[in-house]
Amino acid sequence: MARLSGRVCASIGLACSVWGGASQGAIAQEFSLSTSPRLDASEVDTSNTYDSRLQPTPGLESLPLVHQVAAIQPTDWEYQQLQQLIDQHGIDLTTLSPAITEGRSLSRYEFAVVLQEVLSRIELRLQDNNSRYINRREFAIRARLTEQFRVEMESLEERLSDQERRVFALEVNRVSPLVRLNGEATMAIVDQTGGERTISTTFQRRLRLDLTARLTGRDEFLARFASRSAPTLEQVTSADLDRTAEGTLSSAIRGDTDSNITLETLSYTFPVDVGLPGPSPYRLSMYVSAVGGLHSYYVQDTFSPYFEDYTGGNGSISAFSQSSPIYSIGGGTGFGANLFLDEQERLALSAGYFAESAQSPDAGDGLFNGDSALLAQLSYSPSDRLQVGATYVRGVHTSGNAIFDYAEGEIFQVGTALANVTHTALDATATTNSYGLQAAYRVSHRVTLHAFGGYTDLNVRDRATGDIWYYGLGAAFPDLVLPNSLAGVAIGSEPYLGGLEGVSSDTLGVLSNDTSLHLEIFYRLQLSDFISLTPGIIWITAPNQDSGNPDTIVSIFRTTFRF
Question: 134 phi and psi, to 5 degrees?
């Protein structure tokens, strides 16, 4: 706190010395802008501020231009976007910058100080290295704000001592100027009763270490190493037609490594200048994955704000509630792309392809011959509160591998056995065509709703056809009771086989089609930027779409450390 207070005072004093009207409540903090890559001045649309072709009168180069001294008004685009970032991330600046909380105008240096502090706090909250998966529209806004106030922010930064910069670099865990190490440790006490997987109370643990590198300032290379152990929570495999993956915890995604350290993800993300008009020329983002790729890593949005933590330990507690099951179809090695189709970056097209056995040279495997998934998604944000999207996935699933598997092959993580491995029971390859609709709506900065629905057309080659359905509704309540906390409620139906034609009951037996519901409640208590506690409970009715099975209840007390 002493160091932070010193930085605040130094920054405030600097802002006041540079611009006399600076607010004493503003603060500044050195910030490595890992989530808002800087753009060259020539790359930014400045039409809303001044004409970049105008040059100062000869002999008056020392005088500032009008746009450099004009105050930022509450009605300006920059002011409104900064306030949205503050509301969206629940940043409290009441005691630090009363000017912006009261809606008063700010000088450019005051604004730069507040902007720098807001970006710093966002960065600290994204130390789990999921920052590259934030909404790409927010990414573009942060980049544009940083560029427009680059001069003021650099002026503040230049006056910080070299020693202070080095200390801050150590505080954000930089291994080198290009490489950074982040980690997440999740520990959970889990109890499960009922259904087909009644167990004793058990202790789960998972450790993730992320090495990230930025070569150009706009790209990111990620190598993630992980170790997981949940010995009494055996994963449901393709041989378990009578068991279900409903209620699988998000911390169990990717399977059990038996405490061995494995390479979970190896990927590279980079923007491409496609020469389109707009505030930013980088409207195309490319994603290449050698190991552990998922569709949710490159699409514009998965439409489940607060719940989606990309299999991390700070979102919802189950794999089903993190996002629509359509994103769990396939993964592994492949590539993806996201392109904004309009200058306002509200309409985006995402597409990608993954192969689960790309490294295998065996017949029937490889990049294009084994299990694979091809995705296309169109997303639209008509306002800052509403996002909608339509998704299509075509998958190929060989016998022995599940459908909703997060690229884990025989292990399925979401849904009933009939929805995942019916083709394995028939010893045949299946092709699937999946269609999904998703939406999210921010009622206020304290209430956000999201919903999804999906249908998968199952075609077991030369054997049978079937219908798989799934749907869900979630409500997130950030900052409920305590700051930075998160309460969540989710209800829906995990993927289930609604009907199967072409197979007699003598082959698979009598198929039950009872409605199975997933009800989930959790509360994440954020003790600090690096520690959170999350108790929660999951209730599954009619597990494995059979009302004859007793209901399943999974309770969890999760502790997450980020470093």
Answer: -70, 165
